[in-house]
Amino acid sequence: MTETPAPATPPAPKPPAPKGPLKSAQQVEVDESKVWNLWFTRREFLTLAAWGAFLAGLGGSLMALLRYFIPNVTYDPPSVFKIGKPEEYMAGVVDERWKKKHRVWVIRDTPSQGGGLFVIFARCTHLGCTPNWLEGQNKFKCPCHGSGFRRAGINFEGPAPRPLERCKVVLAEDGQVLVDVNNRFKNPKDWTKPEAYLKV
Ligand code: FES
Fold it and tell me: Is the pTM of this model over 0.70?
């Protein structure tokens, strides 16, 4: 008895053949650049650049106009100010309460020192740094180049060429001490003047 041969498996269907010739990778890149060129031509780029420059110039002009109409405002502390009554200051002490705000020290002498009150401008006479009061050493010391000043403001060490300056002080009608930091006495010969040394 002869065996019947098994039916042959039908061949897998072939993928459809591409229509037309295959493109290389280079050809695809060339085609993409063509698409880009379609959307963004050189002429459009130049037009956009011109608009950008125009708008930047317009913005700059507007800012300049605004600066012209809005004045510069500074918040410097006033040069003339009251510091309270003389009796609020302890005799023999270098008072630093106004150093940060008004850049001055207030010193009230003991009766044996003269009993008056004077105000020293806290700016080094070398290059303008702000010295520190060193209570333990009884002197002002500049942190920049080492100038030292006695309690009265006289320079005695370092490069400072002259003493610290004293500010004008008068007694206001309400009994408070009025200080004018723009009106200063540089020469120690002037420190005995009534407006440099307030008798209290
Ligand atoms: Fe004070 Fe130079 S600024 S010593």
Answer: no
